[in-house]
Amino acid sequence: MPQLSPAFADVIELLTILPDGDEAAVAAVRARDAQLTKPAGSLGALEGLVEFLARWQGRAQPRLDNPMVTIFAGNHGVTDQGVSAFPREVTAQMVANFTNGGAAISQICALHEINLRVFELALELPTGDITQEAALDDKMCAATIAYGMEAIAGKPDLICIGEMGIGNTTVAAALYAALYGGTGADWVGRGTGVDDAGLARKADAVDRALARHAGELGHPLAILARLGGREIAAMLGALLAARHQKVPVIVDGFVATSAAAIAHAVNPAAIDHCIFAHVSAESAHARALQAMGQRGLLDLGMRLGEGSGAALAAVLAKTALHLHNNMATFESAAVSGREG
Ligand SMILES: O=C(O)c1ccc[n+]([C@@H]2O[C@H](COP(=O)([O-])O)[C@@H](O)[C@H]2O)c1
Ligand SMILES: Cc1cc2nc[nH]c2cc1C
């Protein structure tokens, strides 16, 4: 196995020496939950969401005063291979749409009072075409991971990790194939809506990228640099910074999950503070989640990206916390408890 570049030493440390969740905070949440006017367990996954917030915020009374969606945007040289239904310039155009309020994510966030921050990553400088060369050199990859850590500035109490980048479902497919095995055809899907010929070009591009970089894919971070993208590296940084600053994470769809997959491949415990918002309609997403022993919270047939699935999961988390904080107890409402 080739040696991992020393450029990644700090990232490896952040992936390895990890704070644990706060089990006393979880116990406090469970004790209150047991008193609320409902049969135990009847709010299902909503109860788990409140425990998740408590565990990773380290608070017996978790808060969602400042939830945040972050969108990392990057461009990809592999679009030269005809792998997307849309042209590369759409990435920058959609970034403008996010800030101008016209995108789906803008409206989800506006409706539900969730902050939205967009991180534009050198859109005029697409990464290398992975069928021909490395996406990023190791130092640039490490620097982009570090930049992604900016996401937790402003102290969000929950961060949703999303992305925008024409061509990035091909890049994510290449990452999964390198991490978990299989061929391009096993991991590609229709992304923004490619036809059958486009789907075949995607599978072929992944296979050629794997062959081009064979022998240099011995470490998950080397895989990220060779086959990844700026937004995926930055999402990894955001995810890591969140863990170290007690910010729970909701990961969006097929592409955002690939950043978590890199972390998980280095150290499975590094994603313990993450939940996966949904199962994307991108066909291999379910398989990628399964490879990490994870499940998506929702299954809405969505395949938009831009943090949209994660934002909807955050809406559920807000609802779950509101119930936890505001429902009556059996005692306060004079409701009789369970028999026996
Ligand atoms: O994350 C997902 O589940 C997902 C599934 C399909 C498409 N996307 C979005 O679509 C873009 C990539 O699609 P493509 O076809 O250009 O590779 C990118 O901006 C992603 O946010 C995202
Ligand atoms: C219009 C459009 C919006 C998107 N949002 C995330 N990825 C996208 C891709 C396209 C093409």
From TrEMBL:
Pfam family of this protein, just one? DBI_PRT
Q: Which reaction does it catalyse?
A: 5,6-dimethylbenzimidazole + nicotinate beta-D-ribonucleotide = alpha-ribazole 5'-phosphate + nicotinate + H(+)
Active site at E306
Which keywords are on file for this protein? Answer: Cobalamin biosynthesis, Glycosyltransferase, Transferase
Keyword Transferase annotated: yes
Pathway per the UniProt entry: Nucleoside biosynthesis; alpha-ribazole biosynthesis; alpha-ribazole from 5,6-dimethylbenzimidazole: step 1/2
Database matches in InterPro entries: Nict_dMeBzImd_PRibTrfase (IPR003200), Nict_dMeBzImd_PRibTrfase_bact (IPR017846), Nict_dMeBzImd_PRibTrfase_N (IPR023195), Nict_dMeBzImd_PRibTrfase_sf (IPR036087)
* E.C. number(s) listed in UniProt: 2.4.2.21
The top EC class is transferase
Which molecular function terms from Gene Ontology are attached? nicotinate-nucleotide-dimethylbenzimidazole phosphoribosyltransferase activity
Record NCBIfam families? cobT_DBIPRT, PRK00105.1
**HAMAP family on file:** CobT (MF_00230)
- Stored PANTHER family: NICOTINATE-NUCLEOTIDE--DIMETHYLBENZIMIDAZOLE PHOSPHORIBOSYLTRANSFERASE
> What this chain does, per the record?
Catalyzes the synthesis of alpha-ribazole-5'-phosphate from nicotinate mononucleotide (NAMN) and 5,6-dimethylbenzimidazole (DMB).
Query: Family per UniProt?
Result: Belongs to the CobT family.
The entry's protein name is Nicotinate-nucleotide--dimethylbenzimidazole phosphoribosyltransferase
User: What is the scientific name of the source organism?
Assistant: Devosia oryziradicis
Organismal lineage: Bacteria, Pseudomonadati, Pseudomonadota, Alphaproteobacteria, Hyphomicrobiales
- Gene name for this UniProt entry: cobT
